[in-house]
Each structure stands twice: as structure tokens, then as C-alpha cells.
TrEMBL record:
This is DNA 5'-3' helicase. Coiled coil: none annotated. GO terms for molecular function: 5'-3' DNA helicase activity; ATP binding; DNA binding; hydrolase activity. Its EC number is 5.6.2.3. It is an enzyme of class 5 (isomerase). Keywords: ATP-binding, DNA replication, DNA-binding, Helicase, Hydrolase, Isomerase, Nucleotide-binding, Primosome. It comes from Pseudomonas palleroniana. Signal peptide: none annotated. The main replicative DNA helicase, it participates in initiation and elongation during chromosome replication. Travels ahead of the DNA replisome, separating dsDNA into templates for DNA synthesis. A processive ATP-dependent 5'-3' DNA helicase it has DNA-dependent ATPase activity. The keyword Isomerase applies. It catalyses: ATP + H2O = ADP + phosphate + H(+). One of its GO terms (cellular component) is cytosol.
Amino acid sequence: APEQYDLQTAALKVPPHSIEAEQAVLGGLMLDNNAWERVLDQVSDGDFYRHDHRLIFRAIARLADQNMPIDVVTLAEQLDKEGQTSQVGGLGYLGELAKNTPSVANIKAYAQIVRERATLRQLIGISTEIADSAFNPEGRTAAEIL
């Protein structure tokens, strides 16, 4: 059936990401505040695929900048101050992140996965722009498009 094909095609078009790696980074940061130093240069909030994960990472960064402890309670408080608690699933989701983190020891590897997938999404975006420009050059030469 044609609609079945469309669903399969749509499923193939999901941008690269790893929800598990994102969750492990965020959970790890709540479990070990020293982990912040290990991921600080690896990932930024924009590298997270999910919007709620971006918000959580930003709140963690603000706590770290203020030399505040980072845990489920302080993070929930920070998100509450910013009016974002409901957008991230509340205290329950933060608790799940911390509880389900496999190992803080591997946080750098998880952060690298998050960054790698973000880079792939950026490449897709750039190549899509190039393809769109090639299909509709608007008077530009191939060299100008590149």
C-alpha cells in the first residue's frame, strides 16, 4: 500500500540521534558533579536532539557556572526558577535520568556519541541546502553554490 511506503520512508528520514546517550550524559552529570569537567569541551546544549534535554543541559550548565551542586533536587529547582519544569517532564523524569544512567565512568564516551550525532545532523542540513540550491540555482553557477 502507498501509505505504508510513505510511513517507511518517513521513518528512514529521522535525523541521527541517540536518546540513550543523551540521557546517560544528563544522568551522569547529576550523579557525579566532577563529570562536568569531562564533558564541558565535548558537548553543548545544541548538540542534544531532544528539546527537553537541551533545556536540562542548559540548567546543569548554569548550576555548574555558579559552583552549585548538580543533582535531581537542585536541577529541578533551577528549572522551576526558569519556568521549565513541565517542559522537561518534571522531577519524575529527572529522577529517571539519574536512576537509569548505566555508568558515570563512561560519560565522556556518551558525550562523544551525542556530539557525533549532532555533527551528522549538521552535515545533513548543509547537504540539504546544497541540494536545494542545485535544484533551484537562481542564476548562480555551480562554483557559487559550493
